[in-house]
Amino acid sequence: MSFVTRFAPSPTGPLHLGHAYSALIAYDMARANGGRFLLRFEDTDLERSKPEYVQQTLDDLTWLGITWDAAPLFQSQNLDVYNQSLAELISQGLTYPCRCSRKDIAAALSAPQEGAPHHLYPQTCKHRAMSDRAEGDAIRLHMDRACDTLGNMDLVFEELGEINKGTYHIDKNALMRDVGDIIIGRKDIQTAAYFMASAIDDIRQDITHVVRGVDLFEFTQVQVLLLHLLGHKPPKYYHHDLIRDDAGKRLAKRDDARAISKYRNDGATPNDIRQMVGLL
Ligand code: GLU
C-alpha cells in the first residue's frame, strides 16, 4: 500500500505542543506503514509568515527526531498553480466577485431582515457576474451552484480518525447552511484561499493520508467538494483530537509558553514532548 502523508504548518509563529502532536502522529504513521513523510510550508500569508519561523520549525522537527523525504514545498512559490485551479472554477460558473469589506458584512448581518444565518456571508454581491470583477475584489464560491453540480451523487471521504470514523457522507445542505459562499480567491495577494491551496497541494504532493486536527473537519468537507469540482479524488483523512491548555482551550500560535523551543531551552527531551502529548 502506498502511504504518503505530510505536515503542513503555516510559519506564522513558533511550533507548539499541538503542532508537535500532529507532526508526530503523521510521522509515526508514515514510518509504521513504510510510507513517506513530506513537509509543506503554508506561507501564502505573506505578511505574517516569517523565514525565522520556517527555520525554527525545521530545527524543532529535527530535534523531535522527525525526518522528511523530499525538499519542503513552499506555497508562496506556487501561487500561479492555485490561480489555475481558481480559473477552472471560475470557468465552470461557480464563483462571483465580492467587494464587501468586513465592515460591510457586519453591517448587513446586523440588519434585522437579513435572511442568511448570522455567521455566513450575507450574499450582498451574489448577483454580480465575474465579468464585473474589479481589481481588489475577492472571489466567492457560489455554494448552492457548486452543490447543485453534484446532483444525486453521494460525496464521501474516508475518515480514519477516532472521531466520525468510517466513510463520511458530506451533507450538501449542511455546507450551504453552515459554510455558505466562502472566499476562495483572496483579494490581498490575488491567489486562492489557503484551504484551497492546501487541498490542491495534497494532490500535487500525492498525499494519500492527511493527518490534521479535528478543528479542520469542516474545511475538509469544503476541500473534498473543491477537489471533486476540480476532478480529483480526495486523499484519506485522519482527524486527531486537539492538545488543549489547562483551561481546556485549544493551543494557539501565540501560546509561546507551549512553544517547543521553550521546552527545549528548559531541558526537556524529545521523549518528554512525546509523553506530554500522550504518544509515549
Ligand atoms: N496550515 C494549517 C495550520 O498550520 C494546517 C493545514 C492542514 O493540515 O491542511 O494550521
From TrEMBL:
Protein known as: Glutamate--tRNA ligase
UniProt entry tagged with the keyword ATP-binding: yes
Keywords, in A-Z order: Aminoacyl-tRNA synthetase, ATP-binding, Ligase, Metal-binding, Nucleotide-binding, Protein biosynthesis, Zinc
Protein family membership: Belongs to the class-I aminoacyl-tRNA synthetase family.
InterPro entries from the UniProt entry: aa-tRNA-synth_I_CS, Glu/Gln-tRNA-synth, Glu/Gln-tRNA-synth_Ib_cat-dom, GluQ/Sye, Rossmann-like_a/b/a_fold
UniProt GO BP: glutamyl-tRNA aminoacylation
Domain Glutamyl/glutaminyl-tRNA synthetase class Ib catalytic: 4-279
The keyword Nucleotide-binding appears for this protein: yes
This enzyme's EC code(s): 6.1.1.17
One GO cellular component term noted in the UniProt record for this chain: cytosol
Source species, domain of life: Bacteria
Pfam families membership: tRNA-synt_1c
PROSITE patterns registered for this protein in UniProt: AA_TRNA_LIGASE_I
Species: Pacificibacter marinus
GO molecular function, one term: ATP binding
